[in-house]
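Thread: 2-phosphoglycolic acid complex, take 2
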Amino acid sequence: MRNILIAGNWKMNMTVTEAAAFFKSFRIKKNDKVELLFCPPYVDLPMARFFLENSSIRWGAQNVYPEEKGAFTGEISPAMLKDLGCSYVICGHSERRQILGESDEFVARKVKAVLAVGMVPILCVGETAEERKLGQTEERIGSEIRTALFELSEEDAARLVIAYEPIWAIGSGTAATPADAEDISSFIRKTVKAVAGKKAAEAVRILYGGSVTDENIGDFLKEKDIDGGLVGGASLKAETFLSIYKKACE
Ligand code: PGA
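Output below.
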């Protein structure tokens, strides 16, 4: 059985001072079947560790640079994140692919680098509104997944989390329907099976992301291939994010 993962992606929000105030008062009731994760900006990670390390809540990063160390000004290595107690790293979020021009190949290197130090990559995939209109959704997502999984062993592929995030749904207030998200999630699982094998396909956790709220999370989690949510805007409000977690525990 796959555990549910509710991951909050804070994006470029929350100063260290704001993050400290947020984490200080954020508490949950532990649930063995539901994991709760915060991915705050890099600078907030020490604060996350300070306030969350004696709780069941996990923390992780929104990005990483796929090299061990060296002359990469401004970048952060997998080992640095691991040392801060990160469990997960978001790789290839559509904002990075679109705004910073990250290619499928570059994202694949990040996935490998994160696995190499024992953290779990959350590989983001998803289509634009235009691609959806042109019927190219599966082509786009299939290629994002094949490139990221190409060089992974079945064992490593099994540890992955894949977030299906239709780009048109992110921050728009209009989520995909649970049925559409399930269609693509099932396609994602089939693709993992074809590339990495049956065991990996059964173990990989697939999240839906894009305008997730405490009102729609329950419906997404009812779908067979959806194992959690990647939550942007709604993770910035403690009360709403807590309510999403509680719905996931139901
Ligand atoms: P959103 O963002 O929940 O604000 O739509 C999701 C994401 O980009 O991960």
